[in-house]
Amino acid sequence: MSVILLADDSPHAQRMGERILREEGYQVVCAADGETAALRLPEVDPDVVIADAHLPGLSGLDLCRYVKSSCRHTRVILTVGLLEELDEAGARGVGCDAVLRKPFEASVVMETVGPLARDAQRARKPSSSAAVVPADDVRAAVTRAIEAEMPRIIPRIIEEVTQKVLLALGR
Length: 171
Known about the structure:
The chain has 2 domains: about 5-130, Response regulator (Rossmann fold); about 135-170. It has a 5-stranded parallel beta sheet with strand order 2-1-3-4-5, with helices on both faces. By secondary structure, it is α/β, with parallel strands linked by helices. The mean pLDDT is about 90. The chain has helices spanning about 10-25, 35-45, 60-70, 90-95, 105-125, 135-170, and strands spanning about 5, 25-30, 50, 75-80, 100.
């Protein structure tokens, strides 16, 4: 189950967002300001943060910047009132993944949150290229590679050492 951290200073927006998300099976944790959301971030470890762009104190933009610097997998959606201004280029500049306009429309919220939550879940999983390989297996592979190259390397080493010894002997 994906966890959503919803940061909004409007109790009404919190209730609406929480209701929509819970009905779709998300676990929702609410915060009334950016500072609280930032403090709760490590314990909540959300897949998605939904934050009002104009939170008092630590704004949604500042919270987004903080989230992106500390939680690589977490996606951030900024919300803004219908009549409020938002510098969307600035929002993208701090790593914002999407913008939602309030009042929330359930279908739009889910169209936005769903793909981002799935992306966050995938980002949490280590890639197959980062698979844990036992040290003995790595050592064995390195040994095989060196042994395979020895027939080519040994004659060159012998020649180089011989030349250096002869040079040192003045020959």
